[in-house]
Amino acid sequence: MKFTDGYWLMRPGVTARYAAEVADVRTGEDRMTLYAPVKHVRGRGDTLNSPLLTVECWSPAEGVIGVRTTHHAGSVRGGPEFALPGAEQGSGKVRRDGDVVELCAGELTLRVDTSRPWQLEFRVGDRVLTSVGERGTGFVTDADGRHHMLGQLSLGVGELVYGLGERFTPFVRNGQVVDIWQADGGTSSEQAYKNVPFHLTNRGYGVFVNHPGKVGYEVGSESVGQVQFSVEDQSLEYFVVHGPSPKAILERYTALTGRPALPPAWALGLWLTTSFTTEYDEATVNRFVGGMAERGIPLSVFHFDCFWMRGYQWSDFRWDPDTFPDPAGMLARLKEQGLRICLWINPYIAQKSELFAEGMREGHLVRRPDGSVWQWDLWQPGMALVDFTNPAATAWYTDKLRALLDVGVDCFKTDFGERIPTDVVWHDGSDPERMHNYYTQLYNRAVFELLREERGDGEALLFARSATAGGQQYPVHWGGDCESHFNAMAESLRGGLSLGLSGFGFWSHDIGGFEGTPTPAVFKRWTQFGLLSSHSRLHGSKSYRVPWEFGDEAVEVTREFTLLKHRLAPYLQRAAQQAHATGVPVMRAMVLEFPDDPAAAKLDRQYLLGDDLLVAPVFTEDGTVEYYVPEGVWTNVLTGDQVTGPRWVREQHGFHTLPLLARPDSVIPLGADDQRPVSAWAEGVELRVHAFADGAERTVLIPRSDGPGESARFHLRRTGDRIRVTTDSPHAWQVRIGGPDGALHVSPAGTREAELPYSA
Question: Across residues 592-607, what is the average pLDDT?
Answer without folding.
Answer: 98
